[in-house]
Structures are given as C-alpha cells and as structure tokens.
Design a protein that fits this description.
There is one protein chain. This protein has 301 residues and is α/β, with parallel strands linked by helices. It has 2 domains: 130 residues, 3-Layer(aba) Sandwich (Rossmann fold); 155 residues, Histidine kinase-like ATPase, C-terminal domain (Heat Shock Protein 90, 2-Layer Sandwich). It has 10 helices and 10 strands. The strands form 2 sheets. A 5-stranded parallel beta sheet has the order 2-1-3-4-5, sandwiched between helices. Helix 1 packs across helix 5, helix 6 packs antiparallel against helix 7 and helix 7 packs across helix 8. The radius of gyration is 24 Å and the shape is elongated.
C-alpha cells in the first residue's frame, strides 16, 4: 500500500492535509512530521512512495527537502503545497524537479487527485523500468540539429536503458556518457559547423552551462552548415552497447596513434573511456563500444 510522508510546520495545515488524505477511499498510510529535518530522518528509516511538503517552513525549507530527496538513490516524487504568498517558491520547486504542486486554498478539491495522479505515473515509470529490464536488444537512430542542448537528453536515455537492462555499472554509465557527449559535441561543432580548434575550446568551456555560444549561433543558421545534421545510431544488447556518431562535414585526418596532446583532449577521453573506439576512413564517423560489466540478473530479480 502507498506510503505518504507529509512535512508542514503548521499544525493546522497538517491536520487539514491529513483529513483530506483520509477522505480518499484508498488504502494509504500517512506519516506526518513538522519539519524538513524530521522528514529526512524518517526517510532514513522508512520507504515512502510520495512526499508532500510545504514549500516554505522554518529551518530547512521544502526546497531543501526536495533537493535532499533527489540526491537519494531512489527518487521519490515530491508534491509541494504553497500559500498565497508562496507561488514563486512553488514555481521554483517545479523547476527543480517537484512532481506537482497544490495551493493551500485548493487542498480540499485538488490534493487527493494530485496524489493519485503522481502515484499512477510513478507506477507507470516503474512498469516502464521493469519492461526495459526484460529487453534483450534495443536500437535507436537519431538525426539531431546542431544544438548542444539535445546531447544531455540523448546521453540520459542511453544511460537509462543501460541501467534498466542491467548492462553497465554506474561508473561505466558515467564513462560511456562522457564519451558520447564528447563525440556528439565534436560531430555537431567541429564536423558540421567546422569550428576551429580555438572555437572548440570556447564551446567546451560553455557547452554545459546553457550560455549562448557565439560560434555555434552564428554558423548553425548559415549555409551550408544549417543543412547538416548529426546522426547517432545506438544498439544495446546483453553483451554491451555500441554507439555510432556521424557528422555531415568533410571529415578530418586521423592521428596515426592514440592521441595524447592537449589539443586532442576530446579524442583522448573517448579512446580511454570506452572499450573500443574506431573511425571510418573519411574521419566523419566514430564507433564506440562499451562491453557489459555487470553480471546477468537472475530470473527472480
């Protein structure tokens, strides 16, 4: 049965929330605490399915509790509740990963349905992970515009699939992610947009900060660069993961041996983070292979 944790420093609000949840014709177990600190302590002892927290509390805030929950191995969905004067904090909580929010003025009409919605979607996500765990092989093909903002979602998807299939350890997922990140940045910016080594250094300094990068912005809307895309093909099996990244540029001359100079840092990372890395003759396609490093899960797992 679902376990719900409620954190609110107002005794009156705690009573209202508890009454609202008890009115639901469902078998929910509800634990109530008066602070984020108490909530964190209780979460070390019990596993919860949903956390409901006031966004602003004395001491640690609901945002602090949200960030604490998201640092745990098992990420529990968090619903924030807010008073009339707390709307900006509620919006910030949503930006930081809260599953939903309910204004205190609408607790009676919305809290129960919101909890049901979050529980159903969390269960759907668990079912999705269970389904991934049953997969023997998966293949993906992407054609990406030269927008670095697309890289992290791509890497996250590959890591999620690798985790769900039980192929790679957390460390191996991170290493693969960095290698794919480097390869796709290189394909978009060096291959398709033909940025210079100096421009690429600027790209790598700012690409993960979300800052506007002039070299990328000025070229990706101009001919011939705007017509070029990055092609990514990924295959996952019980043996490991293969990722092929290709750009539509003119290619480049490949180093004769493993590169080690600072000007080839990206290639050095790639070659040392995966088990195999190879280029096509044109120099516009790289194939990355990472072998599984986890033991197969038992049928009962």
């Amino acid at each position: 049965m679902p376990m719900i944790l409620v954190a609110d420093d107002s005794e009156a609000d705690r009573m209202v929330i508890t009454e609202m949840l008890k009115k639901e014709p469902l078998d929910w177990l509800v634990e109530v605490v008066s602070s984020a600190e108490e909530a964190m302590a209780l979460m070390r002892e019990m596993a919860f399915d949903v956390v409901i927290t006031d966004v602003l509390m004395a001491g640690m805030s609901g945002l602090d509790l949200l960030n604490h929950v998201h640092r745990q191995p098992h990420r529990v969905p968090v619903i924030v509740i807010s008073g009339q004067d707390d709307q900006s904090a509620a919006v910030e909580a949503l930006r930081q990963g809260a599953a939903s929010y309910v204004p205190k003025s609408h607790l009676a009409s919305r809290l129960g349905e919101t909890v049901k919605q979050v529980l159903e979607l969390a269960q759907a996500n668990q079912n999705y992970q269970d389904l991934i765990g049953c997969a023997e092989e998966m293949r993906f093909q992407f054609k990406l515009a030269n927008d670095p903002a697309l890289i992290q979602p791509l890497v996250g998807l590959l890591q999620q699939m690798a985790n769900g299939m039980g192929i790679l350890s957390d460390e191996a997922q991170t290493r693969l992610g960095i290698a794919v990140d480097e390869a796709v940045i290189n394909a978009m910016c060096h291959g398709n947009l033909e940025l210079s080594d100096d421009d690429m250094a600027d790209v790598r300094r700012h690409v993960h900060s979300g800052d506007r990068i002039e070299g990328i912005t000025s070229r990706r809307d101009a001919k011939p660069y705007c017509d070029r895309q990055a092609h990514i093909a990924a295959g996952l099996s019980r043996e490991g993961i293969k990722v092929v990244v290709r750009d539509e540029g003119d290619g480049f001359s490949l180093p004769s041996a493993k590169c080690s100079s600072s000007e080839h840092r990206g290639l050095t990372l790639i070659q040392n983070l995966v088990d195999k890395a190879s280029f096509n003759d044109a120099g516009n396609e790289i194939t990355l292979i990472k072998f599984r490093d986890l033991q197969p899960r038992s049928k009962s797992a």
